[in-house]
Design a protein that fits this description.
The protein is built from 11 helices and 16 strands. It is α+β, with helices and mostly antiparallel strands and 353 residues long. The radius of gyration is 20 Å and the shape is globular.
């Protein structure tokens, strides 16, 4: 069952690898809400799960207005065919992406393929006042093998922030081509809990994460797919550790052992870093998840890298406030943070090495 605090729902999965939740149902349920003349906005890196594609097509056939933006890389062939090859022949690693893409087009869904030379890395949907986001790609591995989270928030202020971002994406103003540099979205209070949304590169999510780390009074826990030395987040964690804050994290096995990864400097500073994933059928540790003092939780698509902050298109959602003094609000945000830290604990215990 998801962790639910009023109009905030948090899903941790997949269940096949011990997670609390299946990640596919909330995605399908969200798309399934789209009715005639309702506008469903979808901004995702890729779609290769047939059930998700079918849900989008069904929403369009019900009369919904579906606007979809995808990363182009997963629709291209690995190489150009030779002059003697049959250019129309199917095949290749991402053929399922192309097949589903064509089916979605045939439903007259309005599809745009990004033109950002870097990564269009968003994973969000907006329908009315509801937003779905998190770390989960709309892929078979994303919902069945990789460790991920999905967050659903029902709030007009939060939805308006994502709608504005989606409109900018559709205009080509995103990633390194973002020229708006408009003000950050307004903070919202959802079911008594502060929710702050930021988009990269306009609003500097990396700086916001660093700021929250440096406010910590007791502990910071994180699980992140890609954590590189090009990010300043490792420096903030090291500074917090030197100030007596307990820091603990888990990274994906393959990413953590790259020469550019932040694992080594963190460990040299005395921070405990666990690696997991890629063994026993388990896919990636694909979370981009952090908890601070068991009060704040940071969700979203944002990996801890320089490109994520400067040139990819990303989001973070910060739930909670370290300066909150109200007992009820603190209890609500603590419920979300403790459930998120429990996921980090579980990954370290069950899969860590």
């Amino acid at each position: 069952m998801p962790t639910t605090v009023g109009d905030i729902e948090v899903f941790m999965g997949p269940q096949a690898f011990g997670g609390a939740d299946d990640l596919l149902p909330p995605i399908l349920e969200f798309i399934g809400r789209a009715k005639k003349r309702q506008n469903l906005m979808i901004a995702v890196q890729e779609i290769d799960h047939p059930d998700i594609a079918r849900a989008i097509i069904d929403a369009r056939l019900r009369g919904g207005t579906i606007d979809l933006v995808l990363e182009q890389s997963y629709l291209l062939g690995a190489k150009r065919p030779a002059a003697t090859d049959d250019s129309f022949a199917p095949g290749g690693k991402h053929e399922i992406n192309r097949t589903l893409f064509n089916a979605i087009l045939r439903s007259t869904t309005d599809v745009k393929v990004d033109f950002n030379p870097d990564i269009f890395h968003q994973k969000f949907m907006v329908l009315g006042n509801r937003v779905l986001t998190g770390s989960t790609n709309f892929t078979t591995t994303g919902v069945t093998k990789n460790l991920n989270h999905v967050v659903v928030i029902n709030d007009a202020e939060v939805a308006n922030a994502f709608k504005k971002e989606f409109r900018e994406i559709r205009e080509g103003r995103f990633g390194k081509f973002s020229v708006a540099h408009g003000p950050a979205p307004k903070e919202a209070t959802v079911s008594g809990v502060r929710v702050k949304t930021l988009f990269a590169p306009d609003h500097g999510p990396e700086m916001e994460i660093m700021k929250q780390i440096l406010k910590a009074q007791s502990r910071v826990d994180f699980a992140c797919f890609t954590f590189s030395r090009s990010s300043g987040i490792d420096d903030a964690l090291i500074a917090a550790h030197r100030n007596g804050i307990a820091i603990r994290g888990v990274l994906d096995r393959r990413q953590a052992n790259q020469k550019w990864a932040a694992k080594l400097p963190l460990e040299e500073a005395g921070i405990k870093v666990t690696i997991a994933g890629g063994t026993g059928g388990l896919g990636k540790v694909h979370h981009k998840l952090m908890t601070i003092d068991d009060q704040i939780t940071i969700f979203g698509s944002f990996n801890y890298t320089g490109p994520a902050n400067k040139s990819n298109d990303e989001n973070i959602v910060i739930v909670g406030d370290l300066e909150e003094t109200g007992a009820d609000a603190k209890a609500r945000q603590e419920t979300i943070a403790l459930a998120s830290r429990a996921e980090i604990d579980r990954i370290i215990s069950d899969f860590g090495s």
